[in-house]
């Protein structure tokens, strides 16, 4: 099966099982906005929980929730008003708008780093047809700001924008939180929606206008960048596309090779610009591996200095191989003191902090910024399995800790008190903190198939023996093997085998 066929299969399952589907679909669909059904929401929740456990809770970092609406000056200071734009061109015949650089890229013309005049010249001479109407003829390229503009308050109000990243809210909260916690380093994360008015999002769930980010800003003193807890992950490996490997590949016209480097090597060989960067590269590598992205399918691309903003001290983009090519699922960036300095300057508020030794500094920041939906798509692609000798249906081999619900509970039949017993067991498991999918409709075979199709790892079946001896069967999705255990052992069995604490 080709990767495009796999993509189609996943979309069909997603629509059939209500994992995700276009928003407002009874009207003409608008690209880039999707709704999640119960299974999609449950899977997204598991992904965010995993991020939270690795990036926030393990080290006692802080998590906050900041406003989705931001007043204009915030985004002036962050640079989004002036620089957050993409080149757009319009088909003169059908009127559809396209991102000029993507249009050219799809026709094997790379315009990275080119000016708008250069892009215009290239587009004029390139033999490119409109992807919608198939005719030739594009307007001059213009820059289009990607933020959604709104008014805060009635009539004209004050100009505001839906946040294009969650990070700005964290910078704005930093001065208050520093007053509360009073020390560096200070690590503050948040998971929430961001909005970008992408020009022509044609890649399904991968390029969205409304999406979710899991971001963390690690504020630290650049003269003392050591990270508490770093020693625990020094031997973890990170799949890095070094600059050297990218250069060699460019010269030889081959695919760049991934180097599996430990966090310690990233520091010792000065590939990471500082300890916090190496630390978060290690955590991100662990996170993606626990999300089930196979080795060899993810690479942390070390960006060249001409690819990153002028203030950056270094960036790595984790990219996952998918049917859409390599997609960037995160950005891990050393943002120096740029954001706090800009907000200090524009707001007129001094955002420097005084350290115990009396020094006054603007903290530096390392930012791991991870997207949820792109990752969710990548997880689905890599866990998708076709029918096999055990499964007469397609299924998702999701890691147990990402099973949308912790456990499915099925009565063998609805009659003879089995359904009532199964419901009581499901309630008992919920009381013990597990999420439960209860299903009593159709044959037991169909229910196993439906559970496999959404990637459920464990299914508990209540049968006639249950009524006699209070035991149930627990079926493993991958092998379809069943073990018989006591009702009061189910919760521990699931927690132990799914790594739930
Ligand atoms: N604060 C830094 C920041 O926002 P970014 O590289 O623009 O960095 C981080 O975004 C991540 O957010 C991306 O790697 C991607 O996973 C996700 N993301 C960004 N734009 C997206 C879009 N239009 N649709 C889906 N996910 C997106």
The general outline is globular
| Helical percentage | 25-40%
Mean pLDDT: 95
SS summary, helix count: 16
Structurally, the number of domains stands at: 3
Helix/strand-derived class?
alpha+beta
**Number of separate strands:** 27
Note the gap between the termini.
38 Å
Identify the CATH class of the largest domain.
Answer: Alpha Beta
Summarize the main sheet. 10 strands, mixed
Question: In the CATH hierarchy, what is the architecture of the largest domain at level 2?
Answer: 2-Layer Sandwich
What fraction of the residues are assigned to beta strands by DSSP? 25-35%
Any ligands, ions or cofactors bound here, and which? glycyl-adenosine-5'-phosphate
Radius of gyration: 25 Å
As for the CATH topology of the largest domain, it is BirA Bifunctional Protein, domain 2
CATH superfamily of the largest domain, please?
A: Bira Bifunctional Protein, Domain 2
Low-confidence stretches: none
Fill in the keyword field for this structure.
501 residues, alpha+beta, BirA Bifunctional Protein, domain 2, Herpes Virus-1, Rossmann fold, 3 domains, ten-stranded mixed beta sheet, five-stranded mixed beta sheet, 16 helices, globular, binds glycyl-adenosine-5'-phosphate
What does this protein structure show overall?
The chain has three domains: 3-84 and 146-382, 2-Layer Sandwich (BirA Bifunctional Protein, domain 2), CATH 3.30.930; 86-145, Herpes Virus-1; 392-498, Anticodon-binding domain (Rossmann fold), CATH 3.40.50. The protein is built from 16 helices and 27 strands. Strand 5 and strand 6 (97-99) form a beta hairpin. Helix 2 (38-56) packs antiparallel against helix 10. It starts with a helix and ends with a helix. The model has no long low-confidence stretch (mean pLDDT 95). Glycyl-adenosine-5'-phosphate binds at residues 165, 167, 196, 198, 207-208, 211, 213, 215, 328-331, 367, 369, 371, 373-374.
């Amino acid at each position: 099966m080709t990767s495009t066929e796999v993509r189609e299969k996943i979309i069909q399952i997603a629509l059939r099982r209500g994992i995700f589907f276009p928003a407002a679909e009874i009207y003409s669909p608008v690209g880039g906005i999707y709704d999640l059904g119960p299974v999609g929401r449950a899977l997204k929740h598991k992904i965010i929980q995993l991020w939270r456990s690795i990036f926030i809770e393990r080290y006692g970092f802080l998590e906050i929730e900041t406003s989705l609406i931001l007043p204009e000056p915030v985004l002036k200071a962050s640079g989004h008003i002036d620089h957050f734009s993409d080149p757009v061109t319009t088909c003169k015949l059908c009127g559809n708008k396209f991102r000029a650089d993507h249009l050219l890229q799809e026709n094997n013309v790379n315009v990275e780093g080119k000016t708008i005049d250069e892009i215009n010249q290239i587009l004029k001479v390139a033999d490119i047809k409109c992807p919608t109407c198939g005719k030739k003829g594009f307007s001059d390229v213009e820059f289009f700001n990607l933020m959604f503009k709104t008014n805060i308050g009635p009539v004209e109000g004050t100009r505001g924008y839906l946040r294009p990243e969650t990070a700005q809210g964290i910078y704005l909260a930093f001065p208050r939180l520093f007053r509360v916690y009073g020390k560096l380093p200070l690590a503050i994360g948040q998971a929430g929606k961001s909005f970008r008015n992408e020009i022509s999002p044609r890649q399904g769930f991968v390029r969205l206008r409304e999406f979710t980010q899991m971001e963390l800003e690690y504020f630290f003193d650049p003269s003392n960048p050591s990270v508490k807890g770093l020693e625990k992950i020094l031997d973890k490996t990170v799949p890095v596309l070094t600059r050297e490997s990218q250069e060699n590949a460019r010269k030889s016209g081959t695919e760049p090779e991934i180097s599996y480097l430990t966090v310690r090597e990233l520091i010792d060989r000065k590939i990471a610009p500082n300890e916090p960067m190496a630390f978060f590269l290690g955590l991100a590598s662990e996170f993606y591996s626990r999300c089930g992205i196979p080795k060899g399918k993810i690479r942390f691309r070390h960006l060249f200095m001409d690819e990153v903003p002028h203030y950056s001290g270094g960036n790595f983009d984790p990219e996952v191989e998918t049917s859409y090519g390599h997609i960037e699922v995160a950005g891990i960036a050393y943002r120096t003191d740029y954001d706090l300095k800009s907000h200090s300057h524009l707001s007129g508020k001094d955002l420097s902090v005084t350290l115990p030794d009396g020094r006054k500094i603007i903290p530096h920041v390392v930012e791991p910024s991870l997207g949820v939906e792109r990752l969710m798509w990548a997880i689905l692609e890599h866990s998708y399995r076709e029918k096999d000798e055990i499964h007469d249906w397609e299924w998702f081999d999701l890691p147990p800790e990402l099973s949308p619900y912790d456990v499915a509970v099925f009565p063998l039949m609805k009659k003879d008190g089995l359904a009532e017993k199964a419901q009581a067991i499901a309630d008992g498991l919920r009381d013990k903190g597990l999420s439960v999918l209860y299903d009593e409709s159709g044959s037991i075979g169909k229910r196993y198939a439906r559970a496999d199709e959404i990637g459920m790892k464990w299914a508990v079946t209540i049968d006639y023996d249950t009524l006699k001896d209070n035991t149930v069967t627990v079926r493993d999705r991958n092998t379809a093997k069943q073990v018989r255990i006591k009702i009061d052992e189910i919760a521990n069995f699931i927690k132990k085998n799914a790594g739930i604490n």
